[in-house]
Amino acid sequence: MTEAIAFDTHRFVKRLTRSGFTEEQAETLADEHVALLNANLATKGDIAAVEADLAKVEANLRSEIAKVEANLRSEIAKVEANLRSEIAKVEANLMAEIAKVDGKIEASRAQLLKWMIGALIAQGGLIVALVKLL
Q: How many other CB atoms are found less than 10 A from the CB of residue 28?
């Protein structure tokens, strides 16, 4: 097993035996410290593996984001096309309504013109009759 850090067990055991530990106690304690350090400290290899995993996750996320973006652009294009179609229909309906109103205005104008010409003729006749009376 590769050790995560350099730990001088010989020095550790010597210091403990000078402090009153038996050699067996000091060696057991040194072995446990090494096991604890190796189990809880990350090595450069561990960090490299995590970085590689993160790079894969990032690549997957970027791919998913690109797919979502493409789908959204497609949906937006569909909605835009539908809206343009609806606007064209509304515009056509409004143009038809305007044409109907224009037709009614022209018909009213013709009737008004007939009425005015009739009134002018009647007025002219009245003027002629008044002039003859005078």
A: 14
Type of residue at 116: M
Burial class (CB in 10 A: 0-12, 13-18, 19+), 34: middle
Give the residue carrying structure tokens 């009245």.
126
Cα–Cα dist 78/97, whole Å = 29
- pTM of the complete model beyond 0.85: no
pLDDT digits (tens, 9 = 90+) for 92-103: 999 999 999 999
**Pick from 8, 12, 9: which is nearest to 21 by CA?**
12
Q: Cα(102)–Cα(94) distance, rounded to whole angstroms?
A: 12
What are 40's two structure tokens?
A: 């809880």
What are the start-end ranges of the H helices in the chain?
A: 9-18, 23-40, 44-133
User: Comparing C-alpha atoms, which of 91, 73, 94, 95 is closest to residue 83?
Assistant: 91
HSE (CB half, 13 Å, CA atoms) of 40? 6
The count of residues in the chain is 134
